Amino acid sequence: MSYTGNVEVGGPPDVRELPGLTVTKLAVGPFDNNAYLLRCTATGEQVLIDAASEPERLLELLGDAPLSRVVTTHRHQDHWGALGAVVDATHPSVVAHPDDAEALPLPVTEPVRHGETVRVGQHTLSVIHLRGHTPGSIALLYDDGDTPHLFTGDSLFPGGPGNTWGDATLFNRLMDDLEKRVFGVLPDETWVYPGHGKDTTLGRERPHLPEWRARGW
Could you tell me which residue ranges the Metallo-beta-lactamase domain spans (predicted)? Predict the structure, then answer.
């Protein structure tokens, strides 16, 4: 069965085979968070994006392959509820942006900033800093040479940017970053894997940018 990205809490994961990388999406916890396990097909090395909740289910996904890193996309607790348990069991590097690091329950051992990279075996993810939802929110970009794949945390969803709680300054900062660092440089076919809910593409969302600006959220 082909990948859809449609997962439910308590249900099975969805798996996508990319050139060089396998993406496994799992919905966990009371806030319906998405956790993404990326595995290099050449080395077996794995990276987990957002150890959100239900550590036993996340650890089951890992199997016997090594977990080299856990990336936390931003400081909100629903995205790191299982971080301590996963790190205690597997001893990976803890990756996050410095601006959100102090809010995490464990020290960040591998801080990353805009334009830097995160390794997954033989492959790299590019870090995109998207300010607004939190000061240190990041997205991670994997370009397989055909279709770019973007893991956006809570900064971009189907239907709009992440929550900025009615703060016009935060909203405009997030929209500026999305337009400059995401929509301004990546093609329509870029696949978007958000922190909650269903996937989308930049092409599906791009026509609505003026609408988002006008509504202010």
Answer: 32-196
Give the three-class secondary structure for 189.
Answer: coil
Q: How far apart are CA 6 and CA 166, in angstroms?
A: 29
> Would you state the structure tokens that stand for residue 50, as one six-digit string?
């957002």
Could you report the per-residue pLDDT of 173-185, keeping only the tens digit for each?
999 999 999 999 9
Query: pLDDT by residue (tens digit) across 148-177?
Result: 999 999 999 999 999 999 999 999 999 999
Query: Is the distance from CB of 143 to CB of 121 less than 8 angstroms?
Result: no
DSSP state for residue 168 in the 8-state scheme:
H
Residues contacting 173, CB < 8 A, separation 6+: 131, 132
According to DSSP, the β-strands at 21-28 and 14-18 are: antiparallel
Q: Is 137 exposed, middle or buried (0-12, 13-18, 19+ CB in 10 A)?
A: buried
Q: CB of 99 within 8 A of CB of 137?
A: no
Q: Residue ranges of the alpha helices (H) in 2-153?
A: 55-62, 83-90, 98-101
Identify the CA nearest to 70 among candidates 16, 118, 130, 26: 118
67 CB-near residues (< 8 Å, 6+ apart): 46, 47, 48, 86, 90, 92
Enter the pTM of the model. Answer: 0.98
Q: What single DSSP character describes residue 7? A: -
